[in-house]
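Please produce the structure of this protein holding cobalamin.
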Amino acid sequence: MTKEEEILQNLSDAVQSFDSDAAIDAAKASVEAKISPVKAIEEGLAKGLRVVGDKFEAGELWLPHLVLGAEALEAAVKVLEGHMAIEDLESTNRGTIVIGTVEGDIHDLGLRIVASMLRANGFRVYDIGCDARTLNFIEKAKEVKADIIAASSLMTTTMPFMKDLVEALETAGIRDQYKVMVGGGPVTEEWAKAIGVDGYGKDAAEAVRVAKELVKK
Ligand code: B12
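Below is the modeled complex.
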């Protein structure tokens, strides 16, 4: 196992053992070893949290475990965030994005990672948080003259609110003023196509790539 693989494994293990201190230590080791923060999040922390989620689904773990695993991930992300390459935001504002998790859904870890990555890549990002109503997305987008509205959903039961968002924009006659992109655990490219949004990203790195493409159009 290389040093990098070992650190990524430590990050994943720390989340799976609900150990925030170990997660912070592994994050610091990752920074020292100059592993990209994105890789550390995606291939270490998030991977570990998905294992926790799978065990929860299989009935091997309980809700408090999800909370503790999420806390460990968050603690480590705080360490890594400070080391993302921030471009000169003033001179390279690539576009303005309103991002939130749809109504009824309180999952916001992925959302915050995506928001950080977009910021680190020169976008001006307005994070309206989780359990955000369709109207909130639209009002905020109007207020800040957004280029992109980005919606996250982690549950099959809340995914339909993404469709509502598109329909509400159409009803208001402003659908063509914004690009809409979606993502989150159960969301797929097929779903994105079916509800008529402009972009889909499976992780934070893809979210950045897709957002860059969308503002070019
Ligand atoms: C952590 C977690 C929680 C935490 C959330 C903490 C927080 N602040 O977010 C807590 C414990 C609070 C929680 C609660 C619940 N949870 Co939960 N939770 C999870 C878990 C384990 C991990 C989610 C996560 O944070 N992953 C890590 C992040 C980094 O990944 P991510 O969110 O997928 O985001 C990445 C990509 O998806 C993408 N992305 C995300 N958003 C966007 C947006 C755009 C625009 C783009 C382009 C990309 C993108 O980029 C991100 C970074 O790579 C998942 C299991 C899983 N396999 O996902 C279950 C899961 C999502 N939860 C689930 C459930 C059922 C619940 C509860 C209903 C449990 C309960 N019985 O009370 C409640 C929900 C209450 C509510 N109304 O929302 C189910 C959902 C099942 C379904 N219906 O689809 C899952 C799948 C677990 C399971 N297997 O059963 N949960």
